[in-house]
Specification:
There is one protein chain. By secondary structure, this protein is α/β, with parallel strands linked by helices. About 35% of the residues lie in helices and about 15% in strands. The chain contains 5 helices and 4 strands. Helix 1 crosses helix 3. The longest helix is centred in the C-terminal third of the chain and has 11 residues. The termini are far apart.
């Protein structure tokens, strides 16, 4: 069991929905960023579980930016987690995010699941 699976099954399985076969893929692609104090942008916050999973994996010194259309997601903000409310298919909103936070190391899209929005 890798660190993602351990967190999912023991900490946040009721606060996020993930296909468990993705956890090995996450490990494969993200391990080089571990403990690097990265800037991570996640599109789609839902119940905050995945932001906590990313914090657990990358370390609390990284900066996390979450984007969601649901205002209630603001409750997941912490010292190093910023939640922005807006729609991922709104180009002006996304430009404001870029202007505010600058370049990010990883963008993880788990938002609308509509192809045109992901593009």
């Amino acid at each position: 069991m890798n660190q993602f699976e351990n967190f999912f099954y023991n900490e946040a399985h009721n606060r996020m929905h993930k296909w468990v076969h993705y956890f090995d893929i996450y490990e494969q692609h993200f391990s080089k960023f571990k403990n690097q104090n990265i800037k991570f942008l996640e599109i789609g916050v839902w119940k905050g579980g995945s932001i906590q999973m990313w914090q657990n994996y990358f370390g609390k010194d990284s900066i996390f930016i979450g984007i969601d259309i649901d205002n209630t997601c603001k409750v997941y903000e912490t010292e190093n987690v910023n939640i922005e409310i807006g729609n991922q298919n709104d180009v002006e909103f996304l430009q404001k995010i870029v202007d505010k936070y600058g370049p990010v190391d990883i963008i993880f899209d788990d938002g609308s699941h509509i192809c045109k929005d992901q593009i």
